[in-house]
Amino acid sequence: MGLVEAWGGNAAGWFFANLIEAFYNFFYALLHPSEWLAWLPSINGAMEVEQKEALMRFIYYGASVEFFFVILAIFLVTAIIGFINNRFMWGCVRGLEGFANIVGRTAAWAGLLMVLQQIVIIFMQRVFAVSEISIGFGVTFTKDVSWWSEELKFYNAIIVCLCATYTFVQGGHVRVDLVYSAISYRAKRVIDMIGSLVLMVPAAILTWLYGWFFLWRHLVVPNPSASDSLDRLLTKARALRWNIETIGFSPNGFNAYFLFKILLVTFTAMILLQAVAFFFRSYLEWKEGEASEGKYLDKDQLGDDTAELAANIH
pTM value? Predict the structure, then answer.
């Protein structure tokens, strides 16, 4: 649209120009998916020039100023509608918290899988003294025992990254309380609103900016850089090819460390969504009063009085 170039002479003009262009960018991306998603059918395979350029656009815009303002515009529009219609905002809260709960409750099973796999590894090593473990029927997947041992770290990463927002919704994170418990109900909600926007959102954005290019530097060559312009990345696209990281810390160890980078980006996105949900919930509970505290909150029932008391203390 050219508004940024026309208005970008000062900070206010730059901000509002980007915000206005965000609506154009959002609908343009929706109506022209091939320009940034054409590479999907060729993941880890040969790509045509158009697919390479689409991938470079995807990498660039994934951590760009334009993408930030698109997300900001979506948040502002959603918030404005929610301020007018609180039922809509409660629906957003329930949807975002429900998403965090579903992902977290599913990912939590990785803990059981981690324990069972460790038992199998010890049993196979100590009893049968095998050097490899195979799984599958017909088509088997065979790896060295050290590969399976190092893979346990991946299960732990799944729990940490995908259960963080679920634990937040459940109130399971340990808190250090200096003044929070001594202030009024409405003051607590104000602190929660400020904390979600001033602490959670900036931390998520910074982690995303780091994690996004950290991920793609281990998936493609030539390596994209955060300082590269779109034109420079499109120039690099001529030599672009997949180079998915398959190097382990040991010769026969776990060699899919790119999955950790994907988890980092996923974790950051979920934290950002939870920050929005927490801001909306805090605002609604501030507006509606103490009767709305915990409204629509889907908390797990532990089934044990002592465990419930410990969870409430945290």
Answer: 0.91
Compute φ and ψ for 185, nearest 5 degrees.
Answer: -60, -50
Tens-digit pLDDT profile for residues 198-229: 999 999 999 999 999 999 999 999 999 989 99
Burial 238-265 (b: 16+ CB within 10 A, else e): eebeeeebeebeeeebbbbbbebbbbbb
Q: What long-range pairs does 293-300 form, CB within 8 A, spacing at least 24? A: 293/185, 295/90, 296/90, 296/93, 296/94, 296/97, 297/97, 297/169, 298/97, 298/98, 298/101, 298/169, 299/169, 299/170, 299/171, 300/170
117-171: pLDDT as tens digits: 999 999 888 888 888 888 878 788 888 888 999 999 999 999 999 999 999 999 8
Cα distance between residue 57 and residue 32, in whole Å: 12
**CA–CA separation, 15 and 20 (whole Å):** 9
Task: State the Cα–Cα distance between residues 25 and 21, nearest whole angstrom.
Answer: 6
Domain ranges for the chain: 109-162
